[in-house]
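Course assignment 3, question 2. Fill in each field.
Student: A.L.
Task: Predict the tertiary structure for the chain below.
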Amino acid sequence: MKKAFAMVLILAVLSCDKKQDKSPTVSTDNLKRTNERNETEQDSFSTEVALKKTNDELLQALKVGYYDVFANYIHPQKGVRFSMYAFVNKSEDKYFSKADFEKYFLTKTIFTWGSRDGSGEIYKATVDQYMKKWVFKKDFTKSEYSFNKFLGGGNSLNNLKETYPNTNFTENYIAGSEKNSGMDWNALRFVFEEFEGKYYIVAVINDEWTI
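Answer field:
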């Protein structure tokens, strides 16, 4: 009887292990699908710790396509600008207020986001397409993280600090492969500003090797 009970217990444990292996890589338990957000108060954490937490929440939201959650981190007054490359071009890069981003991310409205490096071709896409195919073109939840420091850099002019002075930024960097001599690296940066005790993004900047 004891042997039979032991066998049943072992099988139950193995069954639980198999179920856990099938769990998703990214946990969305802390991502609220409402108009609320996971608050990170400036007086509760240091800036660096607070923005690491916010950075990770943004990456999780992007990975699973929770753009309503992402929208909760857009600066309520300044909105957010999306830059295809390290050089921020205020006259060409796409800008959204928080309200406009929430309005369009579920629609099939086509926007122009900037010019492709090399060809100069205008990049046109819906908000959903741009977020999936450009902003999160690689799995940045598995990237190397840095705070107010550039890990990725190539021959493209990087004017983040000049365009957004007195701000903080995070970088999520994925190194290039040996096959391509490291030139296929990618970086995703979030620029933050504090507003009423909370941190919000004012810019989303992608970076990669350019011609």
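Instructor remarks: The chain has six helices and eight strands. The CA atoms of residues 29 and 60 lie 10 Å apart.
Grade: pending
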